[in-house]
Amino acid sequence: MAVFSIVKLSELEGAKRIDAEYYKPEYLNICSKLNASGSKIFLKRLIKEIVSGSYVDSYFEKGTLYLRVNNITEFGFDLSDVKFVDVDFSKIPDKIKIKTGDLVLGRTGTIGITHLVDERLNGSVISQHITKIVVDENHINKYYLVAYLNSNLARKQMMRESLGSMQVELTLDATKNLIIFLPLNDLQARIGKLIQEFYELQRCSQNLYSQAENLLLEELGLKDFKPKYEKNYTANLSNAFSAHRVDAEYFQPAYEEVIEKLRENNIELLPLRKFILGIQKGIEPGSENYQDEGKPFIRVSNLSKYGFTDRDQKYLNEELYQQLREAYEPKQGDFLLTKDATPGIAYVVKEQIEGIISSGILRLQINDSEINKEYLALCINSIIGKMQIERDCGGSVILHWKPEQVKRLQIPLLPLETQQKIASLVQQSHEARKKAKELLEIAKRAVEIAIENNEREALDYISKVEVK
After folding, report:
1. How far, in whole angstroms, is CA 32 from its chain's centroid?
2. Side-chain half-sphere CA neighbours of 10 within 13 A
3. How big is the CA angle at 89 (ends 120 and 104), to the nearest 5 degrees?
């Protein structure tokens, strides 16, 4: 169904935009709500500094962490895939470094995701797709500002102000001129407290997951293990024939080193196929079926070892979703494993969700009487799985992990009691993360209630939810 709005010519006088998209009814509705709220101010009046990051074309094995937009997710930072830049701090301008307490905002991709920088990222460098915001805390509660900028009303305002066709971007000037709803200090403090608790639970979740990873490596005798990549090495021709590979990278000794270390520690290794009862690939319905709203189409970029993310989320219409859901909708307890682009991300579905998985994701039926699924996912996500997958997929421009390679993946087998102990930490991590997500949603909804109705109702909403 076509959607249209009629704007008078007189209302366009002085306007900088005349594209129809800018005047979509939903955007005009948001402007109307913000204008009616009364308590509004431009972002540039509330900050000390705002700057975009810089493009870097070369990475180092260690040095200064380079924060990219894909590291900023809806529910915090994902640092499972990080890059490093120039080891020499003197070569990096201070203005594109971030400090604890700064805000970082994604200006491309899933535009508008905003988070406070924590201690892990202090001194990091931001990419050109990220905007750094230093808040003047004399004028606004920075935790409240996080909730506001992540709210649906603010995010749609950002989408409206974004420019570009191939890659939409929120410019620095547009960011400075975002309209910020500025409620009384009491509501700012209550919403801000929810965001503080959100970050505390996020840290708790990360710590629990790290404990699970550390316990796994300790039990396997790999706690301080670091593979040594050799610059020069040789391989037997017979090995090349048996592996059906002639690329030098495949025979890098570091890949075999981790397996040899496990064998030295008398750890039993079994191929993944021993635990698989069934395997199914997702589906690709075609980009022509992508929509801005509807049921989530879960691609590789929407899956992490912690769960689902809405990074650059695509959607399918209800009719297509209903046609595909029986065969391609993940169920609670399903074991998902990526095979393309970023192969080797493993995740056990914790709650029933609505959505369709893409062809880059495999759904495995695991025999959980033989192995704990959470333990298995952690093994694949760890250095044990990563090294093997890196070897299998090396030499390709676009990475693909073939199903027969997936089945050959070597899995270390610890006693079931130890597996369950490790899995318990992963589950506790998930519970803390789930609670954190709930608090963030409450904070965002409180902002929207204050704008759409009034501040009193927003305070009442927070009080009722806190009681529950």
Report:
1. 32
2. 0
3. 40
- Non-local (6+) Cβ contacts of 7 within 8 A are 23
Give the range among 7-11, 148-152, 161-165, 186-190 with minimum mean pLDDT. Answer: 7-11
pLDDT at 318: 97
Q: Which two tokens stand for residue 439?
A: 């608090």
Q: Is the dihedral of CA 307, 159, 95, 48 positive or negative?
A: negative
pLDDT tens for each residue of 359-375: 999 999 999 999 999 99
Between CA 135 and CA 48 the distance in angstroms is 6
DSSP 400: B
83-85/103-106 β-pairing: unpaired
Q: Are 377 and 209 in contact (CB under 8 A)?
A: no
- Per-residue 3-state assignment (H helix, E strand, C coil) for 30-54: HHHHHHHHCCEEEHHHCEEEEEECC
- Sheet of 356-357, strand order: 314-316, 295-298, 356-357
* Residue 279 bridge partners (DSSP): 364
Q: How far apart are CA 349 and CA 344, in angstroms?
A: 16
**Helix 455-467 to helix 416-452 angle, to the nearest 10 degrees?**
160
Measured CA to CA, the distance from residue 356 to residue 283 in angstroms comes to 8
Q: If phi over 0 gives left and psi between -120 and 50 gives alpha, with beta otherwise, what is residue 14?
A: left
Q: Is 280 helix (H, G, I), strand (E, B) or coil?
A: strand
Structure tokens that stand for 103 in this block: 């805000």
> Using CA atoms, how far apart are residues 451 and 446, in angstroms rounded to an integer?
9
Q: Which residues fall within 8 angstroms of residue 178, CB to CB, at 6 or more apart?
A: 42, 43, 149, 154, 157, 158, 161
DSSP line for 104-153: EEE-SSSTT-EEE--GGGTT-EE-TTEEEEEE-TTTS-HHHHHHHHHSHH
**Is residue 348 classed as helix, strand or coil in its secondary structure?**
strand
What's the angle, vertex CA 118, arms to CA 115 and CA 122, rounded to 5?
A: 115
Each residue's pLDDT tens digit, 111-165: 999 999 999 999 999 999 999 999 999 999 999 999 999 999 999 999 999 987 6
The string of DSSP letters for 180-247 reads EE---HHHHHHHHHHHHHHHHHHHHHHHHHHHHHHHHHHHHT-TT------SS----HHHHHHHT---
H/E element, 82: none
State the Cα–Cα distance between residues 144 and 198, nearest whole angstrom: 12
pTM over 0.70: yes
Cβ atoms of 377 and 301 within 8 Å: the answer is: no
Question: Is 80 exceeded by the pLDDT of residue 37?
Answer: no
